[in-house]
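Example record used in the benchmark description.
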Amino acid sequence: MYPTLFTIGDIYVSSFSFMVLIAFLVAYFVGESELKRKGLNSNLADLLLIACVIGGLGGAKVLFLYQNVSLTDFISDPIRYLASGFTFLGGFLGSLLLIWFVTQMKRVRYLTVTDAAAPALVLAYAIGRIGCLLVGDDYGAPTSLPWAMSFPNGSPPTFLTVHPTQIYDTISMLIFFAILWKIRKKNFPVGWMTAVTLMVLGVQRFLMEFLRNTTPSFIPGLSQAQVISIILVIVGLVMLYKVGQKENSVKESKAT
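Model output (structure tokens):
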């Protein structure tokens, strides 16, 4: 664990903050190249970066507070809770929302932009999870597996050996990114990449939650993250169905 990357006088830079910065920058360059390839104005990437930073950090914080902090506790010590704690799903949804606002402002098709941004978002997630590992956050349940880790200085600390779910997330997202990057130039209909990304992220997080102890939902046996994951999968499936229907209608119209 390396919670503090370096210090300059009384100022310290956390490894998590540094990895989040790297994640945004890498996503920016990857997304910019995809926007150019799709014939969109590459300057759009600047606005999308701002949208993802604000929407990502804001959404991640809002969902974290909703899941972990009561209103009374937040009012009694807001600085404490605003200074730490984020959730990926909140950041992901917040980014998608502000990307939508950017596309409306610039009058470009939302799904075209999200298709271009999908590989970048997945890669950013993989990099960001490295930051979680370095500060000892978002680890899994206790286990005796050979690669289990303990986080005595984690958040919260644990001396038990647990699933390093941060590593699982990073590996699975790097694999998914590699697949998306390889197939991105294929002639998929608009919205296909977005739909598949929603479904894969939903399934991956749903399964990962079985290795973690997170906030329970109103459905017995399921966490709040799993409920959100199910919604992502359903939305992705509906989108994929509609994309397929539209593609078939286009082919039929050309045939006639």
